[in-house]
Amino acid sequence: MKIAVLAGDGIGPEIVAQATKVLRVLQKDGLKIEMEDAPFGGAGYDAAGDPLPAGTLKLAKEADAVLCGAVGGPKYDALPRPQRPEQGILRIRKELGLFANLRPAVMYPELVGASSLKPEVVSGLDIMIIRELTGDIYFGQPRGRNEGGDRDAYDTMRYSESEIRRIAEVGFTTARKRNRKLCSVDKENVLETSRFWRELVVDLSKKYPDVELTHMYVDNAAMQLVRNPKQFDVIVTGNMFGDILSDEASMLTGSIGMLPSASLDSSGKGLYEPSHGSAPDIAGKNLANPLATILSSAMMLRYTFNKDEWAYRVEAAVKKVLADGLRTADIYEDGARKVGTEEMGDAVVAAL
Length: 352
Ligand code: IPM
Ligand code: MG
Prior knowledge:
The chain is of the alpha/beta class.
């Protein structure tokens, strides 16, 4: 199995180095993988004038899985849009057909104090947000501006039947493997795309009578996530709503530094990355939390390589270092042992 390693910018290289360290231990223990690096995001722009250089895209297409760090930084903020690091992400999602974005929000018992919500609201929280990733207003045409007079700008929210059905299918099958509760989030009271979305999800639900399907408007879902997040098991939603709700859900757990993500195509190939960004303010200081990236590699083992036991092994090692009291600055509390990025990575390796 070949893994394309795209470390990216900011803290990307430091945290990805910890995840590859973990993968190398598994490799020594018999996991058949090869890894190859390529520049991506701002680093892609620096190397080739393009956030997704042709060589990087080729490697990502040939590979069985892609491990990403994070992209972006102040240095690239003033570039014209096509050269901006975010365009690298949007293009790689589209080029690789990574339409299903899985963003779990899991509360580790040791970190309950790190959440800004009351412990009883968040303890034991375990939800999975499934966000459609290659359609919606992010990619809909036309988009643009009209100059002259009262100028305007516009984007198009659009979903096709096949796009909705395939993401809804991921929602139902994921719910089936968990607590069999699926909440489809839309804005059916206002939007035509959402009416269509809801009709198709309801239609598909006939195939999954064992899954309890509910619907929620996105504004209410945003409220319910902070009011009583444990009412949710799996949430399925469109690209734009999912972007917003997944950031909100990640913060319920106290640290976005703990949360992995997977973006999958229809055959199980995937891009794995932490849910957080490139944190340019702490880059290169050995301060970043590498656990989200390490846990992303565990998701890779599970979803692309179908190696559940290896995934559990990595996840158990992460739980062990937390139980042992090791904390990076973002999850630090009195009485814990504060460690840097490297030391956290080494501790996970030791715990394996
Ligand atoms: C995310 C990010 C991206 C998105 C940006 C960087 C384009 O916010 O992965 O959630 O909006 O999808
Ligand atoms: Mg986002």
